[in-house]
Amino acid sequence: MALINYKTVTPDEAVKVIKSGDHVHLSSVASAPQCLIEAMCRRGDAGELKDVHIHHLHTEGPAPYTEPRYEGVFQHDAFFVGGNVRKNVQAGYADYIPIFLSETQRLYREGYIKCNVAMIQVCPPDQHGFVSLRTSVDATLAAIETADYVIAVINKNVPRSLGDALIPMSMIDIFVEDETPLEPAHFSEPNEIETAIGKNCAALIEDGACLQMGIGAIPNAVLAQLGNHKNLGIHTEMFADGVLQLVEKGVINGANKKIDKGQMVSTFLMGSQKVYDFIDNNPMVKMMDVGYTNDPFIICQNDKVTAINSALQVDLTGQVCVDSLGTKFYSGVGGQVDFVYGASRSKGGKSIIAMPSVTNKGVSKISNVLTSGAGVVTTRNHMHWFVTEYGAVNLYGKTLQERAKLIISVAHPDHREELERQAFERYGSHFRFVTK
User: Fold this and answer.
1) Is 237 annotated as catalytic?
2) Domain check: are 224 and 293 in the same one?
3) Which CATH number belongs to the domain containing residue 398 in this structure?
4) Catalytic residue (one of 103, 194, 237, 389)
5) Each residue of 65-120: pLDDT tens digit?
6) Do 261 and 138 belong together in one domain?
7) Which of 183, 192, 290, 392 has the fewest Cβ atoms within 10 Å of its own Cβ atom?
8) Contact at 8 Å (CB) between 161 and 287?
9) Does residue 400 come out as left (phi exceeding 0), alpha (psi in the -120 to 50 range) or beta?
């Protein structure tokens, strides 16, 4: 078949299709099209745009459209509060839409949010005229399907991921070329506390389990403990470098999965160049629409789904706060509830919330009640396993007083006496006789 030809324009020409009042979607994480973002902001600097709404999940790299100087020009209405926008969201210059990750695609497909322009980044076309959305399928595919205009940055540094990531060039209206390397994500090595949490979580993971976990030190600490496990699978919203060594060892092979057998399923990725190289044309990796990866009723079709998620704060009834520190929004709902529920419905599944018992300043992350203004993401009704560096406890089927005792047992020793006093005041004299 002949080489596919396409006409490209400059980023500044491409973003001319954006009009005041438009809703613009950006592909996520390392796929954020920085050259188009910069060009869009130049139009803002020139006074050509106002009231443009920007939507995306977490993005890596700069997010200048959230800066105070663009007030009235760009309105950041994202589905997650990442580190690059957190300060401006907390200051009120940017905003956040609380939404389960599984339902972000519905916002576009069912018309709750318009998508006038989708700005994405793809690999060069293959001989059949298909390009790949590489590390960001999530809600981006839905945005492409519903957009008035799709602008795609063709980048030879982009891996060609498979699954729902492959789309025909006919879905794209405007092409731009850029060779900027992908934005890598950097993760610190787990410290002593995180390593202890990793060991406590790993002890709950059975051979043949299907894993979901996020990114960062705790997931990496968990994965580091799984070298002697057998036949693990991956069905997750995202993965990073921590899985690669286990794939190389044959520990992660998906052999026991009931659906997508032998394949690692994800909807977006963050990691080093090693991750991007790993997914390139790799049939073992299936990048899927977030409506598939995060649907609890699809998740639970695999047996022994083990979902490991974190928290900012947990109260003595098992309520989990993930997205805010008091009234200050810090992250987002993400896919936690999707996988907590999916894992709890899975045959032999386990839902785990894991976090350090204290902050870096020594403040207890376990409290009698959540901080005023904090939101509950995972309810006490959904809470099963709770893990800190001091152990793992299962709250499922436990009474409120039993839960309080169990949670206090894995709190930091410096804070247990005060938590016990607060629980006594809350539940009365009978509390002291509650046993594990």
Assistant:
1) yes
2) yes
3) 3.40.1080.20
4) 237
5) 999 999 999 999 999 999 999 999 999 999 999 999 999 999 999 999 999 999 99
6) no
7) 192
8) yes
9) alpha
